[in-house]
Specification:
- The chain has about 200 residues and is mostly helical.
- The protein has one domain.
- It is about 80% helix and about 0% strand.
- The longest helix has about 40 residues.
Length: about 200
Amino acid sequence: MLGFIWGGIMLLSVLFGIVNHRIQQVSDAVFSGGAQAVQLGIALLATMCIWSGLMRIADKAGITSLLSKALRPFLRLVMPELNPRGDAARAISLAISANVLGLGNAATPLGIAAMKELHKEAGGGESASRSMRTFVVISSASVTLIPTTVGAMRARYGAAHPLDIMPLVWAVSAGALILALLADAAFNIAHRRRQR
């Protein structure tokens, strides 16, 4: 589906370029945009590799176990049926840690691993468990303390202070998490009432 959307956007760009007699600008934008995308991808790849490696080291060194313990009260509150000492809780802690460090792209494979563990813990059914839904909500809110990826992009494009957006990121992250958890709680209450 996404391929059709992107294809449609590109087709419309070419069409408007022809109609407005600016096809040369469209052509130039395609080539310069492609080059910039490759350069940005390489810059982000370096950042992701460093932080993904550090997350792996943290896991092997037992830091994620400490993080799991620190997050245990929060996880117990929002996911009451989750085993706080299980593999799923550890995987969730890793994914949340990656998000907190602003590594949304690195958090994706960690989030997938956490979902697999949650699926196993839920007994492998076809529908999502409450913990799975809540984890998706938490991941989507993407609480970030250090916006690493955005900082790397801003540095790449010449920002004098790439991380000066941190207070705004904190406010937006906290607001998104609170609203997401309230919506999740309302959904869970409505779901329980329907099942009665």
